[in-house]
Specification:
two-stranded antiparallel sheet, 150 residues, 23% helix, binds zinc ion, 23% strand, single chain, 4-stranded antiparallel beta sheet, alpha+beta
Length: 150
């Protein structure tokens, strides 16, 4: 049995079978391909992240001077975990709201590491940021106990 996957011009994956799959087999492969496609899309998004802006800033919530992160875009204060509603896509600084993002919980389900869940105090938008290496662990743990309701 041999299966080939092909990424088409529309960035869609399709399966090329060199045998006649049963309906049940086809269902299984369809799910597998959907998963692969999701991962492929994530990789694509990851590449786009290289446009991220990494800069130091003063935290609007606690006044902490936040240093550059170095390995990716710094998007929240490691001390109080607050962030600002400034990105449409991670790190692009293209959002005009600029409201304060209040940490309301932690999403542990993400493959990239846990994410801090935010609600914008100005527009109410829900946002998620990947936690940074130097985040205050005690605050993260405390937040992770919050039931997520968004
Ligand atoms: Zn802060
Ligand atoms: Zn906002």
């Amino acid at each position: 049995m041999n299966i080939q996957l092909e990424i088409g011009t529309q960035r869609r994956l399709s399966i090329i079978y060199d045998f006649s799959p049963t309906k049940a087999q086809k269902n299984i492969y369809d799910v597998a391909v959907a998963t692969l496609f999701k991962l492929e899309k994530e990789r694509f998004m990851e590449e786009k992240r290289f446009t991220k802006i990494d800069e130091e800033f003063l935290c609007d919530n606690c006044g902490n001077k936040v240093e550059k992160l170095g390995y990716t875009s710094r998007d929240h204060c490691p001390k109080c975990l607050y962030s600002k509603h400034v990105d449409i896509n991670p790190g692009d600084r293209a959002e005009s709201c600029h409201g304060l993002l209040e940490p309301i919980g932690v999403d542990l389900q993400n493959k990239k590491g846990y994410m801090i869940v935010y609600r914008c105090q100005k527009c109410g938008a829900i946002r998620k940021n990947v936690s940074a290496r130097d985040d205050d662990m005690k605050k993260i743990i405390k937040l992770s106990a919050n039931p997520l309701s968004y």
